[in-house]
Design brief:
Two copies of one chain form a homodimer. Chain A has about 425 residues and is α/β, with parallel strands linked by helices. Chain A is built from 15 helices and 16 strands. The radius of gyration of chain A is 21 Å and the shape is globular.
């Protein structure tokens, strides 16, 4: 028998709230197993678990399309400094000392932070993926975990990583998928990039890569390959609908057309791009071409959190001020980027609250001081509130946070405080 | 006898945390009446109230230097539209229908929101100030409440407002001061501005005014007065150390020098300037001249919250990406802007945790998932966490929030939900 959950008297925001009146109605929502079974169930429907949804709204949760989750343990370790100094003198020396256990605890902290701020999926790129998989499976979220490839790995290590992907079976790991993750064009040579593209095709995995994050990357690519990063990647046959490209800040219009033609998903990381002064995302051109834009937080060492609500606000604020147009990049658009567009990129049948879809959802309090008055729920959610209005998080039909409590959170905090002082 | 509060075992961040090691030590802090009496009290010190500060840090609270508090009831009423349409078709028609009761409840909601996000003082400009005063006095915060002057008020109204300032006595209202608040150069004629400057001098009040918020304001000023807004205000003798100028986005270097020479405090409102696409604040020139820069949120209809923590992050993110320099505008600098610089502008002897200073403070949880690890408390506070890490708020030696609860908050939420649907 599948487990059932009935959420009673919850506000369902059916219509895109373009006017102040379209804020939906309360309903009873039945989840059966890991899917939404009925959005208009009878109030006396029997269920294994009943949740009182009064004074709450149900919203799609976040899908964070670019993270280095375990870097939560580097939060605030080095800020306000140039990228090169930051990496060479602080981040890399710290990372060189990390042990598998550090990755496990760092990822658990990251997942705790994500759940508390409404995220149920992350697309990760880091090391020691066994530890990451363990943390994800224990904590009940979804993840696409990158098998990170870099040129400085020995050939044996590379072969081991390739085999890992070849031998992986999603059937054994319901909420976890692996991705082929060549780090970037400046850390992977052309042969490795070609091998990764082939491997992703052979193993039917997504390919996660940093693309055109900084101006330096473009300048160096022009020197080395006589063309720009997107053109270079297209030339070697790497781009396709399985590709999730993070950042994509320094591109021209033709490159955006190439990305569209290949069906690439582009991940906007506004906090990271702003904090590291990488540049301003060409959101208007991306939208004009109809690119599937998703959102990500990047790692906590360059953000310094994994809060997708804050990321949405940052994205629309930056867009408005950088174009001088207060009407651009509406709250609804960034909400779509942070939810359904991210799920779509990975073929996760979720990101909207609809019958038959996977039961991923948030219950947010309508009694929170920043949720009132509520002329427009989407506006309040994107512009006004913060993560503290999230009461309950449901992933794959399981309650992973209720009344803001996550099982085992005290243990995670204690362990992190003990380890990193 | 003065009331005493002992905060035991709390982390006091004494040294500016420029390195990862300088995170202070725990101590016992004694408050007597409305001032910090002893930062290193014996643990067995007797006090009327004892707070367990274990696993918490004490931080200065926020001083929000530019608000239209009652506009909380317009939160999300109209977004993502051009300024003119926003004002003419939405904000002003709504405001025309407001009654004194609306101002009272709107301000109470705003103060609730401010307390919950760590703010103990706001510099306000709106209407029906009796209602605003009532809300401030009831809820235990501090405020400078503007007697707003605009050209379209009848002469009798103006005289009444002038008399209000002349007859005001701070002695009867400990935490409330009034300010002379000519709205802006485009809503007040030259005579009214001159009268306001004289009135502020006569009544020894601060003068709160919008200055150079938009490019339009500068263009119109050039047409009408053949000079730019700051030069115009200086020519008519309005600028002085009692002036708090909000926004100040569109100014040249010479105007910044004028502001410095006159001792004006400038208020940076990054969210509002970004959301309305007003422009980018010249933080570097302001800092180079040594201007007293403070921070504000503006009203909730153009933000859409009153969260000074979010405002700090927005300020430093915008500064870094707009200059291309990740080292500029450090976390410590924006924290100073949002705390001690704001208090200093109004001669409030607070904004730092020090013996003899007014007892305004926050206790923030060090067990919050975004406060760990804690290499640098200031970095975590500005970049990583959100308001949910604030456990306790103390203003003028009184506890106005404890364990995230504010007295009467349920009544405020219920009333707002009933009134504005």
């Amino acid at each position: 028998m599948l487990q059932t959950i009935l959420i009673k008297n919850v506000l369902l925001n059916r219509i895109k709230p373009v006017t102040s009146k379209a804020n939906g109605n309360t309903t009873n929502i039945l989840i059966e197993g890991n899917r939404f079974k009925n959005l208009h169930a009878a109030p006396d429907t029997k269920a294994d678990i009943t949740i009182d949804g009064s004074d709450m709204a149900i919203l799609p949760p976040f899908y964070n399309l670019h993270t280095h989750a375990a870097m939560d343990i580097l939060r605030g370790y080095a800020d306000d400094m140039p990228l090169f100094e930051w990496l060479n003198e602080h981040i890399w020396p710290f990372e060189a000392k990390l042990k598998p256990d550090d990755i496990y605890w760092g990822t658990r902290l990251a997942i705790l932070e994500m759940i508390k701020s409404g995220t149920v999926f992350f697309n990760d790129m880091y090391f020691e993926i066994d530890e990451t998989i363990r943390a994800v499976e224990e904590m009940g979220v979804r993840a696409a975990i990158g098998v990170t490839m870099m040129e400085n790995h020995q050939l044996a290590v590379r072969e081991e990583k390739f085999d890992l992907l070849r031998n992986w079976s999603d059937n054994d790991h319901r909420r976890v998928m692996l991705t082929t993750a060549p780090h970037a064009i400046y850390t992977c040579g052309e042969q490795l990039l070609r091998d990764c593209a082939r491997l992703a095709a052979e193993t039917n995995t997504h390919l996660h890569i940093h693309v055109s994050e900084t101006e330096q990357e473009v300048t160096d690519c022009l020197k080395a390959h006589d063309t720009t990063p997107v053109r270079y990647l297209d030339r070697i046959g790497l781009l396709g609908p399985n590709v999730v490209a993070a950042h994509v800040v320094h591109v021209d219009k033709e490159e955006i057309q190439i990305l569209k033609r290949r069906g690439v998903t582009v991940v906007h990381n506004p906090c990271s791009n702003m904090k590291l002064a990488s540049g301003i995302f060409h959101f208007a051109d991306m939208m004009a071409e109809g690119i599937n834009v998703a959102m990500g937080t990047d790692g906590s060492s360059s953000n310094n959190n994994l809060d997708m609500r804050e990321e949405m606000k940052m994205a629309t604020m930056l867009a408005k001020v950088s174009t001088g147009d207060p009407t651009c990049l509406s709250a609804q658009t960034v909400l779509d980027w942070a939810t359904v567009n991210g799920a779509r990129a990975f073929g996760i049948d979720a990101g909207v609250i609809a019958e038959g879809k996977l039961a991923d959802a948030l219950l947010v309090s309508l009694n929170h001081e920043r949720m009132v008055p509520c002329y427009n729920l989407t506006s309040n959610w994107v512009y006004a509130t913060d993560s503290s209005c999230i009461d309950t998080v449901i992933c794959d039909g399981r309650i992973i946070m209720q009344h803001r409590h996550v099982d085992g959170e005290e243990d995670i905090i204690n362990e992190i405080r003990k380890r990193y002082k």
